[in-house]
Write a structure and sequence with these properties.
The chain has about 300 residues and is α+β, with helices and mostly antiparallel strands. The chain is built from eight helices and 13 strands. The strands form three sheets. Strands 7, 8, 9, 10, 11, 12 and 13 form a seven-stranded antiparallel β-sheet that branches. A three-stranded mixed β-sheet has the order 1-2-3. The chain has a three-stranded mixed β-sheet with strand order 4-5-6. The two termini are about 25 Å apart. This is CBS domain-containing protein.
């Protein structure tokens, strides 16, 4: 057996879930749904009908269905956008098994039951909760600030969070890959169209005439960040493998990384998300940057084990 591997204590989802669970009637409106989310600082609700739980509705459902289809929140019922039938997991389910189940079924939230009673809610984020080392955050922050300075953009980093909500309409996505160590780091640089256009105008003196020109600015910044940071993090093997390879022990990482930088891609649209974030063995952090109290852009970092070809 590889000495870098070790047996791990099996943890069940009862220690990861949140409770109590909030519910909403299937007859309630989307306005009621949004109000409950905001009042409780949550992102999902179980839907009940005739004293039975019949589905689940999430903030992402609202964005993808209600907003995109221009549903009226005052008249549209929760039942029109909920996910049904309702999938559940018993609270004794091992956390790794729950993670596989949720990824397989492409769900982000699932009710947790005990003796056929709902006792909690588990999010995919809960199953992947790993803390990104401050050394890594500092390295990416430093490389980002160096990159944006080339575009005459001043910004300061705020505290990182695990929220993967992308507020801007433009995201450039670029990957760092080490084939030998089976590691992939996805860098997501998210800008609002307004800020990106200002950067373009500040750089060239004229307004951008096409969306392609605006996107190219964001893409080029992401390219520079990736090129800068791959050197900065090349020796942070333990810090990265702890995030991507949960089977490695603390003394199972050595050597250095030799990252290849992939070609950047662009995702455009209000309320979009970046595919590939929810792979197994994933850790992520999102760092907002501001200038004089105004949000400028968001840097997302997703660390994951590279899928075998």
């Amino acid at each position: 057996m590889n000495p870098a591997l070790k047996e791990k204590t099996v943890e069940n989802i009862g220690t990861y879930m949140t409770s109590p669970v909030k519910t909403i009637s299937s007859e309630s409106t989307l306005r009621d749904f949004l109000k409950l989310l905001n009042e409780n600082s949550i992102s999902s609700l179980i839907v009940h009908e005739n004293n039975e739980n019949v589905g689940i509705v999430t903030k992402r459902d609202f964005i993808r269905k209600a907003i995109n289809q221009r549903m009226d929140p005052e008249t549209t019922k929760v039942s029109e956008i909920m996910n049904s039938p309702l999938l559940t997991l018993d609270r004794t389910t091992p956390i790794e098994e729950a993670k596989v189940f949720m990824v397989k079924h492409k769900i982000r939230h699932i009710p947790v039951t005990e003796d056929n009673q709902t006792v909690g809610m588990l999010s995919l984020k809960d199953t992947m909760r790993k803390s990104v080392d401050q050394k890594l955050i500092d390295a990416f922050t430093k490389s980002t600030l160096e990159a944006v300075q080339n575009f005459m953009l001043e910004a300061s980093p705020l505290s990182p969070s695990e929220s993967d909500d992308l507020p801007g309409e433009i995201s450039a996505v670029i990957k760092l890959t080490d084939e030998a160590k089976n590691v992939e780091i996805m860098i997501v640089l998210n800008f609002s169209e307004e800020v990106a256009r200002k950067v373009y105008q500040g750089l060239f003196g004229d307004e951008a005439t096409s969306m392609k020109d605006v996107c190219n600015i964001v893409t080029e910044i992401s390219n520079i960040i990736a090129g800068n940071v791959k050197v900065e993090i090349s020796t942070m093997v333990q810090e990265i493998l702890t995030l991507t390879h949960s089977e490695l022990s603390n003394n199972g990482a050595n050597g250095s990384f030799h990252f290849d930088v992939g070609l950047p891609t662009t995702v455009i649209g209000s309320g979009h998300n970046v595919s590939g974030v929810e792979k197994l063995s994933t850790a992520k952090t999102f760092i907002p940057f501001e200038n004089e109290g105004n949000h400028m852009f968001l840097l997302g970092l997703i660390f994951q084990k590279k899928e075998e070809s």
